[in-house]
Amino acid sequence: MSNSYLPEHIIRPEILALSAYHVPSATGMIKLDAMENPYPLSPELRDEIAQLTANAPVNRYPDSSAVLLKGKLRQTLAISDDIDILLGNGSDEIIQIIAMAVAKPGAVLISVEPSFVMFRMIATFANIQYVGVPLKQDFSLDLETMLTAIAKYKPAVIFLAYPNNPTGNLFDYAAILSIIQATSGIVVIDEAYQAFADASFINEINHHPNLLLMRTLSKSGLAGLRLGLLLGRSEWLTQLEKMRLPYNIGIMTQIIAEKVLHHTVVLSEQAEAIKLERAKMSAFLATIENIKVYPSKANFILFRVHAATQIFLALKQQKILIKNLDGTHPLLENCLRVTIGTPDENAQFCSILQAILSKTV
């Protein structure tokens, strides 16, 4: 075969340099690594969904505009009629749509670091320059450095996660407003964990023409459906809709999500249960010597411990899977992230972690 057919001669070098997003196998594990809601839907609701899916016309394409689902989302999330909705196959597709849409020659995408890794990866996919602005040591927003970067790079788009992933904290509200006002580009606030934070920028959309807001149902118990949404003014979403692939929201996602959104009290109760468990687990971890626990407004907790990778592997041997962040960013040295699970899962994690640490001290 001719050497001209080799991938390294055809695929962009920055893609060749990437590592694929790795999702570890969780078979047989207590899975506390991916910020999922640990609670299943009620048997009654699952029976209703089974009836719906049994009669779904899967031989037909889904409603490309997802009109019924958008209507239910608007009602459930109290989205005013002057705000448009764009749906994506998870938030990842929405990030990709935005990055591709603004990727003019020389365009820049800015985010903070450490933050959601897909901001950087999708910037590479879309062939747009990425600039990561470091957070402070306590993971708070460095407003002065951010404003300096905005003045220097004049970004086409800024992505900010609120609360931030993987740190779990909410950035200062006024500081984010300063960023929105300082840039001539778009600011996208990713509120993936809003259900656990009781804080949102949704009421700012009508006051700031360059503000867009992302939400997802993945953290609220519907991760398997892969449904994300973008909220913003029609002048933006009309253009971004051109980038959305036809039929990107499958029929099963549409009918199941719409059904579950008729039962939001269940999701709210589960979110409250997760918040209570978060408080209990944070308090417990804070009692363990040599662990630094960071405050969280999400459904996970970031903590720092000596020999984090060793601890991570020891937990894995005991069938507990969490996220090892050691080595992913200098600010995350010796950091681990644990998703809030069920009370029993959390108790097992805490007990096993404490036993491992007692042996490694």
Automatic annotation (TrEMBL):
<dbReference type="GO" id="GO:0030170">
    <property type="term" value="F:pyridoxal phosphate binding"/>
</dbReference>
<comment type="pathway">
    <text>Amino-acid biosynthesis; L-histidine biosynthesis; L-histidine from 5-phospho-alpha-D-ribose 1-diphosphate: step 7/9.</text>
</comment>
<dbReference type="InterPro" id="IPR015421">
    <property type="entry name" value="PyrdxlP-dep_Trfase_major"/>
</dbReference>
<keyword id="KW-0663">Pyridoxal phosphate</keyword>
<dbReference type="InterPro" id="IPR015422">
    <property type="entry name" value="PyrdxlP-dep_Trfase_small"/>
</dbReference>
<comment type="similarity">
    <text>Belongs to the class-II pyridoxal-phosphate-dependent aminotransferase family. Histidinol-phosphate aminotransferase subfamily.</text>
</comment>
<protein>
    <recommendedName>
        <fullName>Histidinol-phosphate aminotransferase</fullName>
        <ecNumber>2.6.1.9</ecNumber>
    </recommendedName>
</protein>
<comment type="subunit">
    <text>Homodimer.</text>
</comment>
<keyword id="KW-0032">Aminotransferase</keyword>
<feature type="domain" description="Aminotransferase class I/classII large">
    <location>
        <begin position="28"/>
        <end position="351"/>
    </location>
</feature>
<dbReference type="InterPro" id="IPR004839">
    <property type="entry name" value="Aminotransferase_I/II_large"/>
</dbReference>
<dbReference type="InterPro" id="IPR005861">
    <property type="entry name" value="HisP_aminotrans"/>
</dbReference>
<dbReference type="InterPro" id="IPR015424">
    <property type="entry name" value="PyrdxlP-dep_Trfase"/>
</dbReference>
<dbReference type="GO" id="GO:0004400">
    <property type="term" value="F:histidinol-phosphate transaminase activity"/>
</dbReference>
<keyword id="KW-0368">Histidine biosynthesis</keyword>
<dbReference type="Pfam" id="PF00155">
    <property type="entry name" value="Aminotran_1_2"/>
</dbReference>
<keyword id="KW-0028">Amino-acid biosynthesis</keyword>
<feature type="modified residue" description="N6-(pyridoxal phosphate)lysine">
    <location>
        <position position="219"/>
    </location>
</feature>
<dbReference type="GO" id="GO:0000105">
    <property type="term" value="P:L-histidine biosynthetic process"/>
</dbReference>
<keyword id="KW-0808">Transferase</keyword>
